[in-house]
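Reopening: Sirohydrochlorin cobaltochelatase still failing for me.
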Amino acid sequence: MRQALVIAAHGSHLNAESSAPTFTHADTIRATGAFDEVRETFWKEEPSFREGLRTVDAEEVYLVPLFVSEGYFTEQVIPREFRLEEWDPELWDSDGTSATHATLTAGDTGQTVHYCGPVGTHDSMSDVIVQRAESVTGDPDVGEGFGLAVVGHGTERNENSAKAIEYHADRIRGMDRFDEVEALFMDEDPEVDDVTEFFESDDIVVVPLFIADGYHTQEDIPEDMGLTDDYRTGWETPAEVDGHRIWYSGAVGTEPLMADVLLEQAADAGADVRAAIERVREETRERVASGD
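Support: Ran it again with your exact input. Result attached.
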């Protein structure tokens, strides 16, 4: 039976770069040959969610949301647009950060769809955040003497948004790799604006848990942290702020190892992709070692 991976991402009508990580990670997975087909679909761009399954010939589909948290898009929009009529959020058996998968039948195409939880809550995302810290510092052993800030948007409309940030901060803290690990937010306390107040470490790596770089990661956060007075003039990496060196990584979703998380979600739903996962990890290690 032919199998396909379909990646569901937000996209943007205003920012052409919003979809770039999605296409990059899809290309990485496509190159492994793990699936007969790999397709990208978007809420705000083409190809759309609603037409996503109609572009796939495979009878069996692994549908993975390239979103940070569980909530409105993963629990309502995606199942509706992909016509997963049997869907119920309780099928994920989740507390807000532990979505598994549900096997459903697409109402209009009849395809078997393994609907996976969002990449942002998968345990392997913690590894991507750490990898992002390695990439921005150029140090595969970064940790001792460094603080790490995991940054999220934060919103009163979806408590799961903050849960995902805190979940990964807790997991990384448990690794005992960094001297300090904190979860910070843009729109709720503790705020990233005051990042230096939460750390004693001279060096702080700041990793936003966003899928793509855009207005928030390239304009708001750099200015709010004091990296620059005007994002259009850019900033140094690291930048000196209040006696600390801030290593700002930009969106975690642009890290090449993100392809691994997409594959891990599919693997948890039953896809035989272990060889592809090892290939992506090895290629990522080689890329960091070479400084690319």
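The domain at 3-121+255-290 is CATH 3.40.50.1400 (Rossmann fold). If you still see a failure, please send the error message rather than a screenshot.
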